[in-house]
Amino acid sequence: MDFMAGMAELALASRLRRLSDLYWQGVTATYRQTGLDFDVRWATIFVLISQHGPVAVMEIADRLGITHPAVIQVINELEKHGLIVSAKSEQDGRKRLLTLSEAGQAMLPKLQPLFDAFIAVNKSMLAHQTHNLLLSLQEMEAQLSDRSFFDRIQDQLTRNTNLL
């Protein structure tokens, strides 16, 4: 038996990380096999910019629900690889607006068949599950949006202390 699976709720974060790692390995191998110089970490921001650009850094962070520093790290890598360009906003000079560069635009049609394959494989796997993982993730994310995991732990520890 899988030890982490046996740990059930205690290993939830570790199992999600392991699942993520399995996905990232498959996607990375696919990019390499096709000869594309593209990193799995770039995908969500790259797609968001391609579909909604020009877009500001803070808007990306808000839309994806990730930190501003995490966005900055990825966009710096995308810029270094020549896939996006930034320009100061005419309305607010403090904002950097990001768009795909010519190289990014040229890479998009090469990436799209891979993205389509990722979607098809995920849909197939989800169709063979008793419970839809995407819906379960959405429910967990909504709960954590309402109240952080840390705050919930603190409440539980307080309840446990009061029971003694």
Topology:
Blueprint: H1 3-6, H2 12-34, H3 43-52, E1 55-56, H4 57-64, H5 68-80, E2 84-88, E3 96-100, H6 102-127, H7 133-146, H8 149-163
Antiparallel strand pairs: 1-3, 2-3
Organism: Spirosoma flavum
InterPro entries: ArsR-like_HTH, HTH_MarR-typ, MarR/SlyA-like, WH-like_DNA-bd_sf, WH_DNA-bd_sf
Domain HTH marR-type: 9-146
What report would you give on this structure?
- This protein is mostly helical and 164 residues long.
- Among the domains are: 1-35; 41-114, Winged helix-like DNA-binding domain superfamily/Winged helix DNA-binding domain (Arc Repressor Mutant, subunit A).
- The protein has eight helices and three strands.
- A three-stranded antiparallel sheet has the order 1-3-2.
- The radius of gyration is 20 Å and the shape is globular.
- The two termini are 35 Å apart.
- The model has no long low-confidence stretch (mean pLDDT 93).
